[in-house]
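User: Just a sanity check before I run the rest of the batch. Below are the structure tokens for the first item. I only need the designed sequence back.
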């Protein structure tokens, strides 16, 4: 299964368009907040399921702040990350994923792409396709899930 992961789009249609252009064959998308309206637009444009959480810039309380989903047999924790202080350290995020029995923690907020492991938990931040920070290029992430294993990749868009 091929899953696109995007975060911190901040209402930029150009960022969504670049993401869709880079991954037109995604079977699902995950939007990790800032701005949740972009997740609805992404679902309409991609024509596949989009799982979303709200970020620190989102006011729509109908969208959960965090959720656990299972895709192709793998449990994933979705959050924006600000609630776990990910800008400075991801320890609390790793503990939360472990507590929930998740193999993967997906987060945004920092606008900096990163793939990192701690014990049995893998954390992925797709960066931002519109407002990357720390000299990074605009990016999203691709999760390839096969036989219960997750293979993450950062894609420049």
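Assistant: Here's the designed sequence for the first item:
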């Amino acid at each position: 299964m091929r899953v696109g992961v995007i975060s911190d789009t901040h209402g930029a249609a150009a960022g969504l368009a670049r993401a869709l252009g880079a991954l037109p064959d995604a079977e699902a998308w995950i939007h990790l907040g800032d701005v949740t309206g972009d997740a609805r637009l992404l679902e309409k444009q991609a024509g596949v399921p989009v799982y979303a959480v709200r970020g620190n810039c989102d006011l729509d309380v109908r969208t959960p702040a965090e959720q656990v989903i299972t895709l192709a047999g793998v449990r994933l924790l979705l959050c924006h990350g600000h609630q776990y202080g990910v800008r400075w350290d991801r320890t609390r995020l790793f503990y939360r994923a472990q507590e929930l029995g998740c193999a993967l923690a997906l987060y945004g907020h920092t606008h900096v792409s990163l793939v990192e492991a701690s014990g049995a938990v893998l954390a992925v931040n797709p960066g931002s396709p519109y407002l990357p920070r720390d000299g990074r290029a605009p990016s999203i992430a691709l999760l390839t899930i096969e036989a219960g294993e997750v293979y993450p990749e950062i894609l420049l868009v």
